[in-house]
Amino acid sequence: MQKINQTEKLLDEINYLRNRLLAVGTKKGLSHCKTLRISRELDKLLNEYQSNSSSFSSKHTPSRD
What we know:
Number of strands: 0
Structural class: mainly alpha
């Protein structure tokens, strides 16, 4: 159950940063330092989510022997 809560929290953070990235990028431009900082932070969270979902998937996928 704790893993699900962590995943939900991570998805909430990803969605928040995604929206923030769009807003800042539209207002300040795509190459602005603030836009780039948010983009890097979002990349880290997306990588973390991908890593977590890959490990979860491999543990809960039946083998095909």
